[in-house]
Amino acid sequence: MNYENYDPCFPDQPVVDLYLPIWAKLPAFKSKPAFIWAEDGPIQSSFLTYEQLNSSVQCISSELLLSLRKNDTVLVLCSPGLELVEIIFGCQRAGLLAIPISPPHPSFSNENYHHFLRVVSQTKPKVAIASSDYIRHVNKYVASSSNKKLSEALQMLRWISTDDLKGTEMKIQLENVTCDGNTYNGCRTDDVYLIQYTSGATAIPKPVLVTAGSAAHNVRVARKAYDFGPNTVVVSWLPQYHDCGLMFLLLTIVSGATCVLTSPNAFVNRPRIWLELISEFKATCTPVPSFALPLVLKRGHVGTTETGTVNTISMLSLKNLIIVNEPIYNSCVEEFVEVFKPFGLNPLAISPSYGLAENGTFVSTSWRCNNGDNFWTFPTYNKLLPSARLDEDVDIEILVVNEETNELVEDGVEGEIWISSPSNAIGYLGHPSLTQQVFNARLKNKVGKCYVRTGDRGVVKGEQGFLYVTGRCSDIIKLSNGQEIHPHYLETAAYNSCPHLLRGGCLAAFMMSESEYRSIVIVAEVQSKGETESLFLKQICEGIRKGVMKEEGVEIGQVVFVKVGNVPKTTSGKIQRWLTKYKFVKSQMNVIMQMKFDNSGNVQSTVEKMMQINGGKETKKGKKMISVEEEEGMSFAPPLSASKTLLSSL
């Protein structure tokens, strides 16, 4: 591991938690903030130094082991914040298997509890950790609920409040916290310390088993790739429960860095908080999903504040603007760089990156330290930036394989991305056959190492081995002429046809089969702008069909406009096309207008609901008494009815 060390004076540790007591004992680090939590407006912050975090982690670990045994599973239901960080590291030091998930609202309304039920059923946790206030609301719900299945699941859990874990006055001397891996009683390298659920972008989220050793390897490789060290300052609003948001917690500790955190909701409600935190804390690194860049340009643009003062945004300190959530469009990043270059954003900082839960998180980045590469010199492929680069100096092997024959494809040919790495997770909990298929893939006529099948499509181009992540294998749309296209190209073309009415990042394209006729459907959310005339919406539908045909040469069979919030997404903002299709087929979407086209591109039929797009009361014209009228191939019919969701049966 010596090649990974940024400083040979501090040898690497087998698990991430063992770095913490080392930093906590060093005079230069013990009072240094490890994590800072920033609340929105005006920005107020609290922090944990390395010494405070280490002491708190030891306290939590000791408390947990009073009632639990090593390797027991613990469901962590804490809101984003410093407390969640302490609990995650406390579980690792106690040798427990943590399952951090976003806690469903304790009212359990709007059927927001299905993932929670799935997690409890699959992982069978010994306890659940939450705030005392959350537990009180849960007990109140159980006492009055008619939902027998949910109530039983909540009652079967043994609840531990975070107040109980941290409230006991335990006099723990830091010098008694051992740094010796031989006497360390926490998670060992081969112990599963985390169950990390996949995003759910292409299927129901699956529980990934991550060992403490593979997680440590993953963040050490990321530390080297991004040139992290004790002077690194990270700003992150990503969810702390899994993937990139969780990885940066571990990466901070391994690097002896400082990480400034805020909640995803704070960013969504006011995207400019991200820019303000970068400026205030002089961040050197910040991870951001690709969809967030246009959101910042649209809603978080630099201007005057509510009091009329001028924004003081500075991005001069940034060395890494890490862009995740492929595919990464060149035009999107180019516009962002152009707008923020006057505010100090260096094109050298643009760091497109690739990762997935089955490999811990991090796989690779196309960014390289001090070699002169920058955003302007990155080559593009079909409008996309490279997300990664093949590198012989890193022990993460990336291949592009024909997913049907399991043979390597030539450079320039698209195929499935396979990965072999010490960072690989060990499988899916409770899915032995799927684990064998995904985590133990082998090349045809080759013996030896196993690979993880990522389910991502990619292509390698150029002498520098740039990897372009082009989409997901399961999302590919096969056209009647035998060609294939990734749905994001159709969604982008559709959005570009009317960006002022449609919601960016809230479109889904998929193939539908009706009898012998197959057609492509585009479902798009319409911005909340009150009542919209039906004639205008019809023109937009036709404009989308023409725009996609012009830009991509693909015929669209149906265009469907739905209300805000109807296109399902993952917690990291990825479109769930599979779930969109299911909800559409099962008539579970609030449709505003639905227009079908025949093979010649002519309007075949239109289903319309005259209503307020912003969710207000329906107009008199659409008040449940819907007239049915047929004229010039158009029909007006009652709206699609709602029914139970897919997840209610899981």
From TrEMBL:
One of its GO terms (biological process) is lipid biosynthetic process. InterPro entries: AMP-bd_C_sf, AMP-dep_synth/lig_dom, ANL_N_sf, FAAL/FAAC. It holds the Pfam family AMP-binding. Residues 30-429 form the AMP-dependent synthetase/ligase domain. It comes from the Eukaryota. GO terms for molecular function: ligase activity. PANTHER family: DISCO-INTERACTING PROTEIN 2 DIP2 -RELATED (PTHR22754), OS01G0636300 PROTEIN (PTHR22754:SF40). This is 4-coumarate--coa ligase-like 6.
